[in-house]
Amino acid sequence: MKLSDKKAALSELARLYPDARPALHYGSAYELLVAVILSAQCTDERVNLVTEKLFAEHSTPASMCLLSQEELEKYIFSCGLYKSKAEHILSASRDILDRFGGEIPKTVEELKSLAGVGQKTANVVYSVAFGGDAIAVDTHVFRVSNRLGLAKGKTPAEVEKGLHRAVPKKDWSKAHHWLIYHGRRVCHSRKPDCANCTLSPFCDFFAENARKK
């Protein structure tokens, strides 16, 4: 994808999704952290159903740590991977209490130091909860970035670096949501709706398929 096409694609994404925002429901940085951990390989809709009950009773690290892992697993069972997610949530909650005085750390590196928190989760919390400049690469961002040619890579880390080069820093957090929305609404995993995609004039995937035909 040429530089001019990258700029055009970003402009079109901004036009298409001016109100793009997180789909997860949360009332604090801690609740967002827990919701993002739960969202791995799970829909945001399912996570919101689970956290509605969980956060009504356990919305702080101190309250969460009152639960045993088995008790927490019962709350989050329907999110999938519930054993590892429960372990990560409780470990991160203890870290927040023991190392950060009960307050969610506000930098990516400190967030990544929490047990069970990786780059994607740290980037989401940093950008959404604290207004930092970051691009979290989930499955939608990874797929759409590679297909468009906006940022190509075999790993999320490679795509993140490519997006840092392609997207102005002031737009990093917004671009994260633009790409997620486009992945959910148009550029589906199994069958992208290329015929109705206004990004097709700038898209490497569309151009490659057109050449094959």
TrEMBL record:
Pfam families: HHH, HhH-GPD. The keyword Lyase applies. It catalyses: 2'-deoxyribonucleotide-(2'-deoxyribose 5'-phosphate)-2'-deoxyribonucleotide-DNA = a 3'-end 2'-deoxyribonucleotide-(2,3-dehydro-2,3-deoxyribose 5'-phosphate)-DNA + a 5'-end 5'-phospho-2'-deoxyribonucleoside-DNA + H(+). One of its GO terms (biological process) is base-excision repair, AP site formation. It comes from the Bacteria. Residues 38-185 form the HhH-GPD domain. Binds 1 [4Fe-4S] cluster. Its EC number is 4.2.99.18. One of its GO terms (molecular function) is metal ion binding. PANTHER family: A/G-SPECIFIC ADENINE GLYCOSYLASE/ENDONUCLEASE III (PTHR10359), ENDONUCLEASE III (PTHR10359:SF18). DNA repair enzyme that has both DNA N-glycosylase activity and AP-lyase activity. The DNA N-glycosylase activity releases various damaged pyrimidines from DNA by cleaving the N-glycosidic bond, leaving an AP (apurinic/apyrimidinic) site. The AP-lyase activity cleaves the phosphodiester bond 3' to the AP site by a beta-elimination, leaving a 3'-terminal unsaturated sugar and a product with a terminal 5'-phosphate. Belongs to the Nth/MutY family. This is Endonuclease III. It comes from Candidatus Scatosoma pullistercoris. The gene is nth.
